[in-house]
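Table 4 source record.
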Amino acid sequence: MQKTQPIKNRKDIQKLKQYYLDRQQIRNYALVTLGMNTSLRIGDLLHLQWGDVYNFCNRSYCRHLKILEQKTGKSTQIALNKEVIQALKQLKKVQSPIANTDYLFRSREGDNRPISRIQAFRIIKHAAVELHLEGIISCHSLRKTFGYHAWKKGTPPAVIMTIYNHSSLEVTRRYLSIDQDDKDKVFLDMNL
């Protein structure tokens, strides 16, 4: 079985987001934007409701997302950056009116149900194939993309390990798909 890859090329990230915008698929655009900017697993991402990201009393977006992770049972707090807020604003426009318990990534089937994990996989896989993105791209690629680009920006691996709740740095290293090209760049850029 082959391993899911992060999207390493920033231009490919923009192409993926633009793919959905060009097709007026705002829900899908918001899905990939939140996935790559929050590091959430797809199960946690799909179960987000508007009340998790929007304060209806203040009529403002939350500064932090606070959730209990399904897989680990641990609570986590994630700062919502400007890319996430931008995507949420666009999603709110197409889903208005919204309620506290409405799912962000609603299925077209049923009243207030999130899309399934299978549907999320199809959405992401289809775009990856259409765009000829390198590597094995799936829902988990969104989570891995966050970590890979955090690492490339200089975030200490121990911080990324903590964000992911990994048990060791070795697990995080494998998870980020750090390969020979990444190691070569370090050596070639050193020039002491």
